[in-house]
Every structure is written in C-alpha cells, then in structure tokens.
Amino acid sequence: MKESIMSEENAIQPAATTAPAKRTGPTIDAYLRGAGFEQEIAKLVGDLQVAKRFARVALTQVMTPDKSGNLALLSCSVESLCRCLYTVAEAGLEPGRDVYLIPRGKDCTVTVKWQGYIRAARASGQIKRIWANVIRKGDLYAIKGGSEAPAIEHTWDLDTQRGDIIGAYACAEWADGTVEPEILTRDYLDRCKAASTNSGGASPWVKWYDRMAIKTAIKRLCERLPLGAESSDALAKVEALDRDDDPDGFVVEAADPTPPPRRTDKIKGALRVKAAAGNGAEAALRTRVAKACAAAGYKPEETAALVNAKHPGQTLDQLTADDLQALAAQAEEPAIAAANLDAIRNGAAG
User: Fold this and answer.
1) Which of 85, 151, 167, 327 lies at a 20 to 30 A Cα distance from 285?
2) What is the distance between the alpha carbons of residues 343 and 337, in angstroms, rounded to a whole number?
C-alpha cells in the first residue's frame, strides 16, 4: 500500500511542476487596456486626455483583423509593439491616422503615412498648409527655380487622358505666405523605389506608385521645414522605424482609406480643377501685367490707375482673364504704354 501511494505521488509530481503556463507578462490587449499604458503615454504627450484617446486608438488598431481575418498584431511581442507606440506618441502622431503598425513575425514595425509628416511639420506653428501631387504626361505645369520665390504651377484637364507619372512635388506655405516647393523627377523617384526595403512585386511602389511619390516629395520637403528640436528628434526616431512597406492585409482601414466615389464627386472635382486652373492662369496674367507696367516706367499706383481707367471701379485682382490679356498686350506695346502713362499723369487715361 505504501509503495502504491509513493508511486502515485511520483506520477503526480511531474504534472505539478509543468502545469503553470509560461507567461512573462500581460498580453498585448490586456496591457493596452491597463492604466499603466495610459500613464506612460501621458508622460510622452503631456496630456492625460490625449493619452486616453491614444490608448483607445492603439487598442482599436491592434484588435482590427487584417483582410484574412487574423489579429496579426497580437502575434508581436509586447516590448516590440510598445516600442513603436511610445515612439509614435513621442512624435505627436497617432496610429491609423498618421502611421501604419505592421507586424513582421514577433516584431512590430512602423510605416509613416504622408499625413504624419504633414502633421509633424504643421505642429511647429510656422507652416499654414502643405499640399502635394504627381505630374503626369500631358499635364500643364511651370516650374520657377532660383532662390527668390521659387514656385510650381500645375493644372490638368479632366476630359483628357493623363499619361504616366513624370515627377512629383510638395509645397509648404509659411505663416507669412511664402511658398516652399520640393520638386522630384521621375528618375529620382525610381531610385527611391529601387532603394526601398521592399522593392519586389509586393512593394507599395508597384501597387501605389503615385502615393509613394507624393509621400517621398513631402518627406523631402519636411527635411527643410522647422519641426522644433523635440518634434524633429521624435520624428527622426519614427523614421528610423519607417519601413516603407506595404500595409495591405495588415491594417484594414489604413490599407485604402479612400471611400467609394459618390456620383457627385466627379462633378465637384471637375469644378475644383477648373477653378484652380482659372485662378492659376489669371494669377500669371496679373503678374504679366504688373511686370509689363513696371518695365514701362509705371509706379504701382499708376498701374492701379490704369486698371481703373480701363475698367472703372475694378482692381487688378477683379479683372477677368480676357481683360487681363488685353491689358497685358497694351502694357507690352511701348507706344501704347507710354501714351497711357502720359494720360494718367495728365489726369485722364484713354
């Protein structure tokens, strides 16, 4: 009997030593739901309410299934995910809105969206807005280089089939109205594609060349913009994690945030493009008039007087493109310009 009991104890003993599960800490979802995570984020962002929102958004991203229905981010280690989240929070960015969280086995990696770079730049308070686009064959564009007021004008016709991408640009408007452009050629974009960490068939450069071109232009532009010492250092840390990888299949919402087009979108888009094209053409004509008048010896107030004489009650900014074209032609004709100037100085322009 004694021997039977000892045998039974010996049989039970191994089970008792191996029963506890091998857990080194809380699971990812449990940690993100806890107060400790919010407190750590609050230390980085300096605001408890912002930290609470960040924690909710982070948990939503982690618990959102990919296109295969898997919660792939839960396979990452807590340390890896938190390293990414802390770095993103320190840069003043937010997962989903500004960055993608992408699992690579047990490691969590980050891809910064172009919206993230814009948000970081505007946080300095010195940048009013940033815009960017790709240039395609057949588009109308004009690039003004040099150190004084460089700029780019870009328009296209929705009724015309646009060709392949030949470049990309990003522009930032400073608080004083000055515009800072960054213009990239197709050759430069192709070299960026070749240098990407994922340059194979699954690369986002293959699927979404236009989006990656826009992001690259914005990223280059932001290198010259004032981000502030802390924001700059924090963004540099995020960039160190930026893989430029394909988010497709990992973050459902972030994979393609563009909603399905509505029937009115095309009409509204056409109106916006035509308005932009008209404004750009008229701005160029106004500049042409001002330069021609200045070359003919007109003072700014005399140019204004010429406009009022030809179009009573209107200013240069109020003239139509046809009126501006006619006025520019007169200002560029030396004899007519001189006669009008004499009439203005004598008190009656004809």
Assistant:
1) 167
2) 10
What's the pLDDT score for residue 236? 64
pLDDT given for residue 197 in this prediction: 62
Measured CA to CA, the distance from residue 278 to residue 280 in angstroms comes to 5
| Closest by Cα among 61, 56, 55 to 37 | 55
Question: Which residues, including other chains, have CB under 8 Å from residue 55's CB and lie 6 or more apart?
Answer: 32, 37, 38, 41
Single out the residue of 55, 72, 56 nearest to residue 64, CA to CA. Answer: 72
Which pLDDT does position 136 carry in this prediction?
95
pLDDT computed for residue 235 by the predictor = 60
* Cα–Cα distance, 166 to 13 (Å, whole number): 73
Q: Indicate the domain borders of the chain.
A: 22-109+231-257, 125-226, 264-345
SS (H, E, C) the chain: CHHHHHHHHHHHHHHHHHCCCCCCCCCHHHHHHCHHHHHHHHHHHCCHHHHHHHHHHHHHHHCCCCCCCCCHHHHCCHHHHHHHHHHHHHCCCCECCCEEEEEECCEEEEEECHHHHHHHHHCCCCEEEEEEEEEECCCEEEEECCCCCCEEEEECCCCCCCCCEEEEEEEEEECCCCEEEEEEEHHHHHHHHHHCCCCCCCCHHHHCHHHHHHHHHHHHHHCCCCCCHHHHHHHHHHHHHECCCCCCCCCHHHHCCCCCCCHHHHHHHHHHHHHHHHHHHHHHHHHHHHHHHHHCCCCHHHHHHHHHHHCCCCCHHHCCHHHHHHHHHHHHCHHHHHHHHHHHHCCCCC
Q: Could you report the average pLDDT of every consecutive run of 10 residues in the chain (350 residues)? A: 44 42 60 86 88 91 85 88 89 87 87 84 82 93 74 87 93 87 93 75 81 91 69 60 46 32 46 49 79 86 85 80 84 86 72
Which residue type does 261 have? P
pLDDT of residue 277: 47
Closest CA to 155 of 138, 168, 178, 179: 138
Predicted TM-score (pTM) of the model is: 0.54
